[in-house]
Design goal:
Structural class: alpha+beta
Radius of gyration: 22 Å
Number of helices: 5
Number of domains: 2
Strand order of the largest sheet: 1-2-3-4-8
Number of strands: 8
Largest sheet: 5 strands, antiparallel
Shape: elongated
Helix content: 40-55%
Order of helices and strands: EHHEEEEEEHHEH
Strand content: 15-25%
């Protein structure tokens, strides 16, 4: 069994951890010196920022293993077995089209990696130049490809490799191994400090 491959945004992770460090220092200061309602409200805002940093910067990831692909977005997770996946494409994000519950076609857009429309258009122009020049139609490994293009290529190679190892879902049946649902710990990491901040603001207004 090979280890799962994970695709995520390094800049987003770095930004999230920087915010966590900033928030930790300020929360420590509030714990030592803060004793009023304003300090509590500030702490709630810092914790809300930590929740947002977690769900936007640390949580999103695309995980590919021998059985399928898991797309972990800020608040929802989607698990798709290889036989259910119909196509994997790259634009401003990696999108996966698959056969879902009852044979319905579904599409999930991954938050893990994002490409600006400008960068996408530039890469597409580079690809057209290579093809019009009579080359093999393939770009150099590092040139002319956005991160989403690279990840889509890797996932399509894995899909081809695993395509024949599992039987596909039958029409009208749920794709074996498919799972879609809310990530409740992630929801709570944002909702709880947001509710606490709202309660503190209301308490300040009523006092």
């Amino acid at each position: 069994m090979t280890a799962p491959q994970r695709f995520r945004s390094t800049p987003a992770q770095v930004g999230a951890w920087l915010w966590m460090a900033f928030a930790a220092l300020n929360l420590a200061d509030i714990a030592l010196r803060g004793r009023d309602l304003a300090s509590a409200a500030t702490a709630a805002v810092l914790l809300l920022g930590c929740g947002i940093a977690y769900v936007v910067g640390l949580r999103p990831v695309i995980v590919a293993d021998e059985r399928g692909v898991t797309v972990r977005n800020p608040l929802r997770d989607t698990r798709m077995p290889w036989p259910a996946i119909k196509k994997i494409e790259a634009a401003t994000a990696v999108t996966i089209t698959y056969t879902g519950d009852g044979g319905a076609e579904r599409t999930v857009r991954a938050w893990a990696l994002q490409t600006s429309p400008r960068a996408q258009a530039k890469a597409e122009r580079a690809a057209r130049r290579v093809q019009s020049g009579g080359g093999a139609g393939k770009l150099p490994d590092a040139a002319g490809r956005t991160p989403t293009m690279f990840v889509a290529q890797q996932l399509n190679e894995l899909r081809t490799r695993h395509r024949g190892t599992q039987s596909g879902p039958q029409t009208g049946e749920r794709a074996a191994g498919e799972a879609v649902g809310w990530a409740w710990p992630a929801v709570a990491s944002v909702a709880v400090p947001a509710a606490a901040f709202a309660a503190l603001i209301l308490a300040a207004w009523l006092s």
